[in-house]
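Possible regression after last week's pipeline update?

I re-ran a chain I had predicted before the update to compare outputs. Posting the input and the new output here so someone can diff against the archived version. Not blocking, just want to make sure nothing changed silently.
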Amino acid sequence: MKRIAMALMIGAVTMASVLAHGSNQESRPEQSVPSERSVIGAWEGMLEDRLPITLTFKMEGGKLLGAVSFDAVREDGTVEGRSPELALIDLKFDGKAATFKIEKMASEGELGFKLIGANEAELKLKGTQFENGYAIVKMFRGK
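New output (post-update):
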């Protein structure tokens, strides 16, 4: 019984020492999740190989903000000109992907933006005008 008590006491003292002073093992660098900073910048892509889209992400006051602009298209398919920048609302970023809605178009649903490289991403647009109800646009970070 004394041996068990002594072993428990030595174990407790050893554990307390490790917790108080850290272990002597080399610490491995932690696998970090990319921060919001990994998406900051202007991202450009082409919808249906003819309509440019620009997404811009920035940090302001410690918060990730974004905006989108694109070519406006008339019902007959002709390009009307560049839209004003519209804010991204309900913007959430988990380190690899962002979801958001577009100001003045929120009723059209949530969009997705997924990093697939340091300067490459995919933008998922929803809409009945697209085959399968959505389109994937390859986006590249501007220089």
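Follow-up from reviewer: compared with the archived run. The chain has one domain: 36-141. Marking as no regression found.
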